[in-house]
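Students often ask what a holo structure prediction actually looks like on paper. The answer is less mysterious than it sounds. You provide the chain, you provide the ligand, and the output is a string of discrete structure tokens encoding the 3D arrangement of the protein together with zinc ion.
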Amino acid sequence: MTDNELIELAKTALKNSYSPYSRFKVGAALLCQDGSVFLGCNIENASFGAANCAERTAFFKAISGGKKQFSKIAVVGTGSGEITEFTPPCGICRQVMAEFCDDDFEVVLTDGKTIESFKLSDLLPCSFTKFNIK
Ligand SMILES: [Zn+2]
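The corresponding structure tokens follow.
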């Protein structure tokens, strides 16, 4: 699956965003190593701390479906309806990625014009992981 195809799936997921408070919609498409794809959107809540990001929605759907090996995730976001900026994952989502993914796991972003891919190890250097707990 190409980065562009994964971005298009993330745009599909974005349409299901529940974001009445921030009005910032986010969609994610997570590619598993077996080729399956799980979609996620941000889901907000009147109790703000109960909100969940699109990336973690996709990860938790995949993990609860028995997947544990991942290749890359595409993430898109917009507050206007048009994608004009990169929407990088927040720190909590990066930490969840670090739990299940290798350093070369890719995060694919777009600003609507270009697509760029980032390695997880570049987005979360010197991370605290399961290898630190022994
Ligand atoms: Zn997040």
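The chain has a mean pLDDT of 97.
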